[in-house]
Amino acid sequence: MKAVVYDRYGPPDVLRLTEVERPAPKEDEILVKIHATAVTRADVETRAANRRSGPLVSALSRLVSGVRRPRQPILGSEFAGEVEAVGAAVNEFAVGDQVFGSTGFRFGAYAEYICVRQSSRVAHMAKGMSFEEGAAICDGGLNALWCLRQADIQKGQRYLIYGASGAIGTAAVQLAKHFGTDVTAVCSTKNLDLMGSLGADRAIDYTKEDFTRNGERYDVILDAVGKHSFKRCKESLKAGGKYLATDGLKNLLLAIWTPRFGDKKVIFSIPPRYTKQDVFFLKELIESGRFRAVIDRSYPMEEVIEASRYVETEQKTGNVILQITGR
After folding, report:
1. Separation between Cα atoms, residue 201 and residue 309, nearest integer Å
2. How far apart are the C-alpha atoms of 33 and 256, rounded to whole Å?
3. Between the CA of residue 209 and those of 154, 186, 222, what are the distances in Å?
4. Non-local CB neighbours of 261 within 8 Å, separated by 6+ positions
């Protein structure tokens, strides 16, 4: 089968399309013929060994992914496709079923086929969902859901989502509204209308206004893109407020430190813990019209380098999709 692999850490150019052995499902696994996957921030940071975050974070990344070279040469954690074969003990899926899901940091989805356990984060696709939409659900959806639950989200709270136009941000806006909060979305000029269509109560153009200086206070501030800081946001939090971080070693340390001092705290827990039930939850929201995937661009598998370069610009809106086997 065809797969995109990388044998060393580095820029997008280390990615190459090649032939690898097609996997065979174990007794409790399904073999999925992948039609689409997503090129995510986690993909590009893992491929580069998190070099942009500094030498310490890069060294820690290599401890997880492989010190000298990647242990898993195939990136991609989100997938949507059709069940090609099932193991003898599988009873939840059948050949021909359309499915979507996430492998998390096991990766492996930049390929024509992948094997996943039927008990893993995989579900039947919602009626009318395209494969591209299926591949765009779990990255932002699961990450946003994990963050909001960490904050013990409550109806009537005021939420500010910084970086609201990315994969996590677009999902967080929709989920926060579903849970009954008042949502302020912070994004660039071009995405202001999108925020309204996703349900945000108001949107702030960060190129024209600094939300930390407008006097507003929030119960929770979610930094969905890792570009802000607790220090800058602290005065914009209400007493007892929470700053939700999505990456950064400093935030991990602050998450340990801040609960012990003062009434405002950083929440950041890794690795996140997603479940199969979380995928079902997102599917139910999609079927009821309360959640949708936001897709910026789609690339054919052969243009994975260009797709990765675009994600690295940090200018994408929602998700970037890699088409694997047809549309």
Report:
1. 33
2. 42
3. 27, 9, 17
4. none
H helical segments located in the chain: 41-47, 55-65, 131-135, 138-150, 167-178, 192-197, 230-233, 249-257, 276-287, 304-312
3-state secondary structure of 169: helix
Q: Which residues of the chain have pLDDT under 70?
A: 53, 57, 326-327
pLDDT of residue 194: 98
pLDDT, tens digit, for every residue of 16-40? 999 999 999 999 999 999 999 999 9
Q: Which amino acid is at 92?
A: E
Q: Which residues of 86-96 are buried (b: 16+ CB within 10 A; e: fewer)?
A: bbeebeebeee
Tokens of 227: 């570009």
Q: Alpha-carbon distance 194 to 164, whole Å? A: 10
115 strand-pairing partners:
31
Cα 42 to the chain's mean position, in Å?
8
Tokens representing residue 127 in the block: 């009626």
Q: Tell me, what's the pLDDT at 326?
A: 55
Residue 321 CA to residue 327 CA, distance in Å, equals: 11
* Partner residues linked to 102 by β-bridges: 78
For residues 176 and 202, give the distance between their C-alpha atoms in angstroms, rounded to a whole number.
13
Q: Where are the beta strands (DSSP E) in the chain?
A: 2-5, 16-19, 29-39, 78-86, 98-102, 113-117, 122-124, 158-162, 182-187, 202-205, 218-223, 237-244, 265-267, 295-300, 319-323
Distances (CA, A) of 80 to 17, 67, 97, 306: 20, 31, 11, 21
Pairing relationship of beta strands 2-5 and 16-19 according to DSSP bridges = antiparallel
**In the block, which residue shows the tokens 């090609």?**
84
Q: What is the pLDDT, as a whole number, of residue 121?
A: 97
**Contact between 324 and 35 (Cβ < 8 Å):** yes
